Every structure is written in structure tokens, then in C-alpha cells.
Amino acid sequence: MTRHLLVSYHTCPMEEPGEGLAGGMNVFLLGLLRGLSKRGVATDVLTRATGETVEVTAPFPGVRVFHVPCGWKEPPSRESAFASLDLFVERCRILMRGERIEPRVVSAHYWMSGVAARELAAAPMILCYHTVEARKVPGPGTGENPLSSIRRAREAALAREASRVVCFSEYDLAESRRIFPELSEKGAVIPPGVDDRFRRLPPREVARSYLGLPRGGMIFLVATREDAGKNADAAVAAFRAMRDRWKGAATLLVAGQEGPEGGPGGDVFFLGSLPHAGMPMLFAAVDAVVCPSLYESFGLVPLEALSGGVPVVVPEGTYWGERVRTEGGGLVYPGEEPARFSGALLALASSPELRARLSLEGAAVAAPFTWEKCTASWDALLASFSTPESPR
Is residue 391 part of a domain? Predict the structure, then answer.
């Protein structure tokens, strides 16, 4: 009998971050599956496919990924994903009967996966929201839409139906508990890990030479997929405001986005989608990583940067904003004050001594985050629900 069924409907764990709807959740799921495999946890994964037939891959020992076609439309959107959800559930039911998948415990990642998991299995469900709609900060020109209202209602129902809800930090749990009081009894905190490659970055001059970047000057990096809520435009504006006051050489790289048509011009360069395997080299080449999103349930990019001793710039009112404010590793600014944002960039550009201090602090802050700890905690949580007498 399968011990663990993992549902990741709207994005496949194997997809590269930055492609379509893939992002930090994909990095997390890949690390989780790899770590659970090392611990001998058998896992079947249900995810959507873009083709016409079911495909099965086995990325790690004991892990099977079923790619289930469900009328997925391209380019992907959350609206088209939700429209295909019922067909996904129907075809997964058929697949589970044919493969005799009878899980003792299910983990669901993102709200649509939670909806599917409740339809597919009566086993206890461990839910990771990854993001909560009621906590999101609308981006410029965005507002409430029909799917947003549906999502809020479904997320509230899932808080009642889940056996356990996993958050990535105490901060995330506390903020989510204000919206879902049920989490007071069933919330759990399991921080993610970070790839050790980010802890062993090559020297900056080596990385810049390898990537063809200027040997001198200040280089900032924003790494985020295309999404108005990620607030990349604010980072570009803050950088340009800083350049009006800073006379030295400076460049802003934006990874994960294509940029405006015709190119941004000047000293801002959009790099498009990059493979995650190449990010350690890019982090090694820059002086600071700018993380302008006003809402992240956690934020893997700041963690990866801090792990390599790269200072971060993060807004207040986020997990990393609070963590950096109290423990160091970067600079914090009020999210609604553009002048303070550009001022933080200027402070970093102006002081090599400040950057050196923040580098040491950041590595210390990130040191406890390991995949070994993360997957050991997940293994224990899954085991607590995978015996016949476990609560349903």
C-alpha cells in the first residue's frame, strides 16, 4: 500500500521555476521528494500533464510521478487550471483504481491540490497552502476577480477539512491563523531547506567572468517569475531612483522575466527564465539580491541568497523582513515608501563594509535551514498519520 500520495495539480514538481506557473513551490517540492526518497518514503505524485496520455516518471527511488492529462490550456493560467480541475479529478480516480493507489496519508500543495485531494482520497490530508489569497497584496492595476472569491471560500473550507496544515515559519502560521482560527489546533511549522550549492559559491570575480558581467561596479539582482504581485517594477523604479544619487557604476539584473518590449535600456537587464541549477553562479556574481514582493508565505530566494552570504533587501511585514530586521543579513524598508527602498539600495552601494558585515550575518541566519531537517520533520509527520489507527 502506498504510504504517501502527494497532489501538486497546478504545477509539476519537475518543472523549472519561472516557466509558466512554476516558482519557489517547485524548488520546495523537488527538495522534499528527493529527501523523502533518501529516507525510504514511498511517494506517488499526481500532477497535471499537457499531453494526451498519462506519463509516469521516476525521478528518485520510490517516487512515481503520474502526469495526468486534463485539457490543460496554453499558455497556463490559474483560471484555465481551475477550469480543468474537475477533469483532473475524474481521470485521477480512474488512474488510482487501475494502479491500486490506496494512500494512508495525502499531502496537498496549493489550494487547488487540496480541493482535488479531498475528492480523491478519504485518508488524512496534510495541506500546504504555499500562499493564502486573503493575505495577498494586490499588484498595481489588479483587484478582486471571480476566481479570487472562489479561492477564498475553498481555502477556508480546506482549513476545516485538513488534518494538519503545514506552514514554513512561525510568522506564516501566526498570520494565517488570523484568517483560519482552525490552525490554532492543527497548524504545524516545518521550514524548507536550501540546496548546499548556495552555501559554496565561487568567488565573485570568477562568477562575473564566467557570466560575462562587468568586473567592477555594483550589481543588484531580482529573481522572480512573471507576476504583478512579485513587485519587480518597484525594484526597477527604486534602482533608477538610486542611480540618480549614485555616481558609481551599477547594474540591475532581473532574472525570470522577459522585460518590456523593446528592452528596458540603460543599466537594467532582463535575463528571462533561467534554470535553477544556474542560480548559484548568478548569486555569486552579484553584490545584493533585491526581493520586493510584499507577500510571500516564506521566500526561497532570500534564503538562497543569505545562504551564500549575499545581502538581501526585503520589505517590512514579511517573514524575511522581520527575520532580517532582528538578526541581520540585509536591509529592510517599508513596502509603501519608494524613497526608503531606493535609500536601502544606495546604502548598500555606498558601503563595502556594510555589505561585508551583512554577508557574515546572512550566512549565520541561513545555516539552520537544511533539507535533512525539513524532510525528517515531514517523514515524522507523515508517519504519524500512516498507521491504521491514525485519525481520519
Answer: no
CA–CA gap between residue 132 and residue 375 (Å, rounded): 23
Phi, psi of 49 (to 5 degrees): -120, 160
- Report the amino acid identity of residue 170: E
Q: Are residues 334 and 380 in the same domain?
A: no
Which tens digits make up the pLDDT trace of 66-125?
999 998 777 778 888 999 999 999 999 999 999 999 999 999 999 999 999 999 999 999
pTM reported for the whole predicted model: 0.92
Residue 308: Cβ-neighbour burial (10 angstroms; 0-12, 13-18, 19+): buried
In a domain, 115, yes or no: yes
Query: Could you tell me if 159 and 275 lie in one domain?
Result: no
211 and 79 together in one domain: no
Q: Across residues 290-300, what is the average pLDDT?
A: 91
Structural domain of residue 187, as residue ranges?
4-193+370-385
Mark out the alpha helices in the chain (DSSP H runs). Answer: 24-38, 78-83, 85-99, 111-120, 146-161, 170-179, 183-186, 204-211, 232-243, 279-285, 300-307, 319-327, 338-350, 352-366, 371-385
Number of domains the chain contains? 2
State which H helix or E strand residue 268 sits in: strand 268-272
Q: What is the pLDDT of residues 129-165, one digit of tens each?
A: 999 999 886 655 455 688 999 999 999 999 999 999 9
Q: Are 160 and 179 in contact (CB under 8 A)?
A: no
- One domain, residues 331 and 222: yes
If asked whether residues 35 and 166 sit together in one domain, one would say: yes
Which amino acid appears at position 108 of this protein?
A
136 within some domain: yes
> Is 188 found in the same domain as 205?
no
Closest CA to 235 of 251, 214, 249: 251
Extract the C-alpha cell encoding 224: 522572480
Phi, psi of 157 (to 5 degrees): -65, -40
| Predicted pLDDT of residue 73 | 72
